[in-house]
Protein: Glucooligosaccharide oxidase
Amino acid sequence: WSKSYNLDKLVVARPAAVVRPKTAREVADVVTFAVENGYKVQAKSGGHSYANFCLGGPGTTNTVVVDLAELKKFSVDKETWYATIGAGTLLGDVTMKLHDAGGRAFAHGVCPGVGLGGHATIGGIGPMSRMWGTCLDHVVEVEVVVADGRILRASETQNADLFFGIRGAGASFGIVTEFVIRTHPEPGNVVQYTYTFSFGEHDVAQVFKQWRDLAYDPNVDRRLGTLITITGHAAFIEAIFYGTDEEFQASGLPQRLPTPSDLTCDAKGWAGHLVYFGESEALHASNIRSAFYHKSLGFRQQDILSDGAVDKMVHYILNAPKGFHEVSLFIFSAQGGAINDVPVEATSYGHRDKVMFYENYIINTPNVSQENKDYFIGFHKLMLDALAEPKLISTTYAGYVDLDLGTGVKSGPAYWGELYPRLRKVKTTWDPRDVFHNLQSVRPVD
Structure:
């Protein structure tokens, strides 16, 4: 129950206690007990916080963790097609239950072990997001335990300010015990294409430039979810198209992607796509406890990486310390589309202007060396230098926790940008004693 997700010694968490309640009433009782005895509180759903915030985070021993693993209620209203889902349900279970309940779906990430509770309160981005938006954009109502122990409902019409805070910064405002979520009919067909480019045969900088031009096009077909991953040996473009192969070919998208060394194509129905992704992600570092270090950044339309910036980036990657690429990944993912249709003030997800995120990971045992961290910091500086003027305020998605951004009010604008002052006011209203606290949670106004 209390094992950290990131095992690096600098971020390992040691909570005071971990409790697994079975009902919202029991969650409320735990919160009340913690407050009366001077403890902070954090919820744990799937337990995938990069800095172990779901266990209180590093350097803290006075956090009571509310593990939501027993809260797995699930039902679907066949008239509205709204799904009511417990906050402890994992994404892999959510998707299959929705499939079995009438062929329904909503946008979210693809790691099956991620918990809905954290995912739907921080953003929830994935390959479906360009088509449908973020996970939290589908949340229409929540049941939530707040700092004084009350169990409340929150929506756009009931406790609306609390609802605003929960949809993007949920860990700072309460513990959601169940979600009411708007769903879509499943896409009938899904085709996944993997383009492989070996360094000996391709100019990786040119490959990236072609992908960049596609990712930055605001008019590109929203049925496409795509990312590019660069390792020390090859580059891989993943293109997931929510339609048939014939529709993909007719869309003009294949002509805009570079010619690879190898191309694989998997055409599947929706359920087969979910199983395929679940099996793939189970092997990915994001679903395995390990010691890792991570950096990330969001890019607006005006922050398009110039050809010169791309050349510098690829040169930097190809000149990494010896052995570095055995345990590292550089990932760039396309955003925009339906995500950016939502007004920035509608939720506390602060990235409606982003068209791309980069994230990189390095995994070491037992800990990440300072040399490797310094290398990643150098790469991150290249990315920051490439941004347009004026430099953006909101730098990255709060799901990509980065302790280098600082703590408290210093880190807030980096995740929530211009929304942070509003979030602090909401925090002051609903949690003035800062009960729901981690190193980078929203702070009440002094």
Notes: The mean pLDDT is 93. Residues 295 and 377 are 8 Å apart (CA to CA).
